[in-house]
């Protein structure tokens, strides 16, 4: 069988056995599949149907044999059948007369449902089989599935605007003044199939046709179309003119787009109204507002604000533009151009989007630079007052208006009887320029003000049965006490104070009374006028009894009420004294302070029972004190301290010299104090702290320190710790240090041990007795041995420790002098409890020989290797020579050369100027010591002195020792024999000796 494959455009005339047989094929896609007969001769290159394939064919003829049947296929290449193989199903023949060669037909169409993919080219192939068995075949030029609409329709011009001038897309508006200005230009973009045709219409909303019906438009070769100028007349009613565009590509897909709105506006905005203040000050801003500027077609795009001496002029303010959505503006900075008494006008110009304008003018604006003239303001009584002797006075006292100062003074009230209302009246405020009359605060038309204030009106809360604004009450007090007290030690004096400021209404009179809790009157009502405290002496108050005060109060409303104190108990027990310590180490007394400008003190134990205070004696130091906090609950309440006073003086024997440096100063409940900026005499002057403690009963305990000197500011110079870098023990540690010095004597030393160096370069004063560091802080800094006082010893042993092999630790030594200054030194060390690693020794040419021989009796050379220590390294080598009388194990050893110490960089040593006996075996002994002082011993193999030369032997050529050959038969090799005596040294002749080998 022969197959002939032809293209659509080619007609074929055959000259062989297939002559006059030819075919023509056209692909029409899915179009026409619903019709009875697809249109022949119309080729389609694109389709939108993803499942349907239709093919029409024509011109298949064979004049010789006639076409007897047809088959068709679909593939992704011409002639291919990878989508559908060749088959006869789906082919419908066309009815024809006079078919060439008496075949069935020369044309027809085929239809099938196939899955098509986008962006893939498909080809249909049809073949006709003749009665002679020949095949006539042809393929289409391809069909592609279009899955997307047009890529875009772009508006390039609308009226006289282009995209670079203004956004002309849908949703935006353009404004014009003439109806013949409607024109547009747009471009198409479809790179896949191309544009087939386009339409446009004009309407008042997108895709409408109520202005101009849909019209097909010509598409240029550059893929753009236009709506000519004045071709469509726009509507000018304020409605939008919108151009809608449609386009269809060759696949039959249609896209649409609408332009922005073109609105025709032929009229300016309506005139609005401008409102400005009637009067302003010279330097005050002029705030103007406007409304009523309207435009039915195009909105207001901007306002122009000007100001001048006439309507529409701008000789004062040249103008400012603001956006169209603004409705107010403040004109400022015109003080130099405005004059008192002149009139000015503000003009607002509204401009719409087609640049048409309308104007609005303010009323005249007056300039007033003077404030109003004010009168007197008074508070009125809130109740009706009656004078039963004078009717006219009753009317005058209850008037609500006053014109003269005398009339106003008669009506003025001091306190108010009402809690819900306040009444006031005032003389009229006047301003002749602006003619405005206002109340208590007078504001003229230029916004300038005058204020007149009344002499005040007080609210009376207590008279209305209400709670006062703040505390109102009576307190039992003592001389120098703060606030109310519950106890006092004096039995002949009583004091009280009272405070009524919580009720605003002023008091006109106080009366004071003292009474015992059982009702006994100690002092009857005593006139106190306006005094707010009182003191009565010469009394005989009983110990253990409570006394209280009564105060009768009368205010300006003539309202009277009585208040009572909570009472004070007479407690004659004196306050228990405490102890005062010089220096800043709490609980410890220091006799020397470093600075002559800054001094410290601390104290404790005031008011505490004896069993709550524990004496602490620090060896080689001053005594200290500790307080048992568990005993504080048993403290008597009248022994509780309420505050302390501290002073510094030069002599504690006399009251006047106890505070001649620093006067008594209230430090409240603090138990430490620091005084700065003093000028004390260094080294020779002695000073004393004096502390006064005041109890709850205001009994006083005064205690003075034992004195201190100042100016010892050299501090403590730390010394050194005499200790090795490596330590061979882990359960104890021996420490020795030296070199601590101070201008004063060293008071005590402390030692500590840690696995970190965080405490280095810090102030050790925080770690010693009385220091500020807490127990937790010291545990973090001194992990293996806490800070421990060792008195004045400079040598000590730390026990009860457990150090780790190979770990690094830090030992601290601290010294403190009599001024409390502290110095600290640190030493780093590593724990090594293991002996050095063993190596090997040679005294001859090789290591590991059983015996070596030395050829001289005056010198001996030794070499070694392999000795080491991973932690502390090798510190020294020690070498010596020993000799034995014989090789017997019982022979005595004798030192020939005493021990010689070598540094760790030696690996060999030469013994010279010796006199060695060749009949005695020698040994070199070693002591190897590491950095921690741990050592091992080692020795060489026996060494024998052999100064004799070897005995000559005999050498012959050839293997026969008896015949020395003269001639040989090889130029490359020679054979020989050697005769020698194999003699072995067999030791001493002594029968008790053993072989040294």
Description:
The radius of gyration is 63 Å and the shape is flat. It starts with a strand and ends in an 18-residue tail after the last strand. The protein has 997 residues and is mainly beta. The protein is built from three helices and 74 strands.
In short:
The chain has 8 domains: 3-145, Immunoglobulin-like; 152-264, Sandwich (Immunoglobulin-like); 273-367, Immunoglobulins (Immunoglobulin-like, Sandwich); 377-459, no CATH class; 464-570, Sandwich (Immunoglobulin-like), CATH 2.60.40.10; 579-704, Immunoglobulins (Immunoglobulin-like, Sandwich); 716-831, Immunoglobulins (Immunoglobulin-like, Sandwich), CATH 2.60.40; 840-945, Sandwich (Immunoglobulin-like). With 997 residues, the chain is mostly beta strands.
Q: Quote the distance from N terminus to C terminus.
A: 110 Å
Output the CATH topology of the largest domain: Immunoglobulin-like
Could you tell me the strand content as a percent range? Answer: 35-45%
CATH class placement of the largest domain: Mainly Beta
CATH architectural name of the largest domain: Sandwich
Strand and helix layout:
Elements: E1 3-6, E2 21-27, E3 46-47, E4 52-62, E5 67-75, E6 84-87, E7 91-93, E8 108-113, E9 121-130, E10 135-139, E11 143-145, E12 152-158, E13 173-176, E14 184-189, E15 195-203, E16 212-217, E17 224-227, E18 242-249, E19 254-258, E20 261-264, E21 273-275, E22 279-280, E23 286-291, E24 300-308, E25 317-323, E26 328-331, E27 343-352, E28 357-361, E29 365-367, E30 377-380, H1 391-397, H2 405-411, E31 415-416, E32 423-426, E33 441-443, E34 449-451, E35 458-459, E36 473-477, E37 487-488, E38 493-499, E39 507-516, E40 521-529, E41 533-537, E42 546-555, E43 560-564, E44 568-570, E45 579-582, E46 599-604, E47 613-617, E48 623-627, E49 641-649, E50 662-668, E51 672-675, E52 688-695, E53 700-704, E54 716-717, E55 720-721, E56 726-727, E57 732-738, E58 741-742, E59 746-754, H3 775-781, E60 785-789, E61 795-799, E62 808-817, E63 822-831, E64 840-842, E65 852-854, E66 860-865, E67 874-884, E68 893-903, E69 908-911, E70 922-930, E71 935-939, E72 943-945, E73 954-957, E74 976-979
Parallel strand pairs: 1-10, 3-11, 13-20, 22-29, 31-35, 37-44, 56-63, 65-72
Antiparallel strand pairs: 2-4, 4-8, 5-6, 5-9, 7-8, 9-10, 9-11, 12-14, 14-17, 15-16, 15-18, 18-19, 21-23, 23-26, 24-25, 24-27, 27-28, 27-29, 30-32, 33-34, 36-38, 38-41, 39-40, 39-42, 42-43, 42-44, 45-46, 46-51, 47-48, 49-50, 49-52, 52-53, 54-58, 55-57, 57-61, 59-60, 59-62, 62-63, 64-66, 66-69, ...
């Amino acid at each position: 069988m022969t197959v002939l494959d032809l293209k659509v455009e080619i007609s074929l005339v055959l000259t062989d056995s297939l002559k006059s047989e030819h075919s023509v094929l056209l692909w029409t896609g899915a179009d026409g599949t619903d019709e009875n007969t697809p249109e022949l001769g119309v080729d389609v290159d694109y389709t939108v149907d993803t499942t349907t394939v239709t093919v029409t064919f024509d011109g298949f003829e064979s004049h010789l044999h006639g076409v007897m049947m047809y088959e068709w296929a679909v593939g992704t290449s011409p002639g291919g059948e990878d989508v559908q193989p060749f088959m006869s199903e789906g082919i419908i023949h066309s009815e024809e007369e006079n078919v060439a060669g008496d075949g069935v037909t020369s044309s027809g169409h085929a239809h099938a449902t196939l899955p098509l993919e986008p962006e893939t080219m498909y080809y249909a192939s049809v073949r006709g089989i003749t009665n002679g068995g020949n095949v006539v075949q042809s393929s289409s030029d391809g069909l592609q599935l279009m899955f997307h609409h047009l890529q875009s329709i772009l508006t390039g011009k609308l009226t006289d605007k282009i995209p670079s001038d203004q956004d002309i897309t849908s949703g935006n508006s353009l404004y014009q003044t003439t109806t013949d200005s409607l024109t547009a230009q747009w471009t198409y973009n479809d790179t896949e199939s191309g544009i087939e045709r386009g339409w446009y219409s004009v309407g008042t909303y997108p895709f409408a046709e109520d202005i101009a019906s849909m019209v097909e438009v010509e598409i240029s070769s550059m893929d753009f179309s236009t709506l000519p100028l004045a071709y469509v007349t726009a509507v000018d009613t304020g409605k939008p003119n919108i151009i809608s565009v449609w386009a269809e590509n060759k696949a039959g897909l249609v896209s649409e787009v609408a332009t922005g709105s073109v609105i025709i506006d032929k009229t300016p905005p309506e005139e609005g109204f401008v409102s400005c203040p009637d009067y302003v000050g010279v330097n005050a801003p002029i705030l103007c507002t406007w409304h009523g500027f309207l435009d039915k077609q195009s909105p207001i795009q901007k306002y122009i604000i000007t100001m001048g001496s006439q309507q529409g002029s701008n000789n004062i303010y040249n103008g400012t533009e603001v956006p169209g959505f603004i409705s107010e503006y403040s004109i400022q900075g015109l003080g130099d151009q405005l004059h008192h008494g002149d009139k000015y006008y503000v003009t607002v110009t509204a401009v719409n989007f087609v640049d048409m304008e309308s104007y609005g003018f303010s009323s005249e604006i007056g300039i007033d630079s003077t404030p109003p003239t004010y009168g007197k303001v008074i508070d009125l009584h809130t109740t009706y007052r009656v004078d039963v002797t004078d009717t006219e006075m009753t009317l005058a006292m209850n008037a609500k208006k006053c014109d003269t100062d005398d009339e106003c003074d008669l009506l003025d009230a001091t306190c108010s009887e009402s809690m819900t209302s306040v009444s006031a009246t005032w003389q009229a405020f006047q301003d002749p320029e602006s003619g405005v009359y206002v109340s208590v605060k007078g504001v003229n038309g230029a916004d300038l003000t005058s204020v007149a204030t009344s002499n005040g009106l007080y609210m009376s809360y207590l008279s209305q049965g209400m709670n006062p604004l703040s505390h109102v009450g009576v307190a039992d007090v003592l001389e120098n006490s703060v606030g109310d007290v519950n106890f006092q030690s004096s039995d002949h004096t009583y004091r009280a104070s009272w405070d009524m400021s919580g009720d605003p209404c002023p008091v006109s009179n106080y009366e004071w009374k003292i009474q015992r809790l059982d009702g006994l009157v100690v002092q009857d009502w005593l006139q106190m006028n306006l005094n707010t405290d009182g003191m009565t002496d010469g009394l005989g108050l009983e110990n253990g009894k409570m006394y209280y005060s009564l105060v009768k109060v009368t205010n300006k409303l003539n309202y009277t009420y009585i208040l009572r104190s909570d009472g004070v108990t007479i407690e004659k027990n004196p306050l228990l004294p405490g102890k005062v310590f010089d220096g800043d180490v709490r609980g410890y007394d220091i006799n020397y302070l470093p600075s002559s400008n800054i001094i410290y003190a601390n104290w404790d134990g005031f008011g505490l029972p004896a069993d709550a205070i524990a004496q602490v004696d620090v060896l080689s130091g001053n005594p200290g004190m500790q307080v048992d906090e568990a005993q504080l609950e048993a403290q008597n309440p009248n022994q509780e301290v309420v505050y302390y006073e501290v002073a510094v003086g030069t002599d504690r024997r006399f009251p006047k010299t106890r505070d001649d440096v620093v006067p008594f100063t209230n430090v409240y409940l603090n138990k430490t104090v620091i005084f700065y900026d003093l000028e004390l005499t260094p080294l020779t002057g002695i000073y004393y702290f004096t502390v006064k403690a005041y109890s709850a009963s205001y009994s006083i305990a005064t205690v003075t320190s034992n004195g201190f000197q100042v100016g010892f500011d050299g501090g403590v110079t730390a010394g050194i710790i005499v200790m090795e870098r490596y330590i061979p023990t882990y359960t104890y540690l021996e420490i020795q240090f030296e070199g601590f010095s101070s201008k004063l004597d060293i008071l005590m030393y402390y030692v500590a041990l840690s696995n970190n160096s965080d405490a280095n370069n810090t102030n050790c004063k925080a770690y010693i007795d009385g220091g500020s560091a807490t127990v937790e802080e010291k545990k973090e800094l001194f992990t293996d041995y806490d800070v421990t006082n060792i008195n004045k010893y400079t040598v000590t042993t730390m026990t009860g420790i457990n150090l780790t092999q190979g770990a690094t630790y830090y030992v601290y030594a601290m010294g403190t002098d009599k001024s409390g200054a502290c110095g600290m030194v640190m030493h780093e060390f590593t724990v090594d409890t293991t002996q050095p690693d063993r190596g090997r020794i040679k005294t001859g040419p090789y290591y590991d020989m059983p015996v070596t021989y030395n050829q001289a009796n005056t010198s001996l050379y030794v070499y070694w290797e392999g000795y080491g220590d991973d932690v502390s390294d090798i510190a020294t080598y020690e070498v010596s020579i020993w000799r034995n009388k014989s090789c017997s194990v019982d022979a005595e050893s004798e030192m020939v050369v005493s021990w010689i110490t070598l540094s760790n960089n030696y690996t060999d040593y030469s013994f010279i100027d010796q006199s060695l006996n060749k009949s005695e075996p020698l040994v070199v002994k070693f002591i190897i010591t590491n950095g921690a002082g741990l050592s091992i011993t080692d020795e060489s193999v026996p060494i024998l002195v052999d100064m004799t030369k070897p005995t000559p032997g005999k050498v012959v050529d050839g293997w026969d020792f008896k015949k020395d050959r003269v001639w040989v038969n090889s130029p490359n090799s020679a054979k020989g024999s050697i005769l020698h005596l194999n003699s072995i040294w067999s030791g001493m002749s002594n029968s008790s000796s053993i072989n040294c080998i």
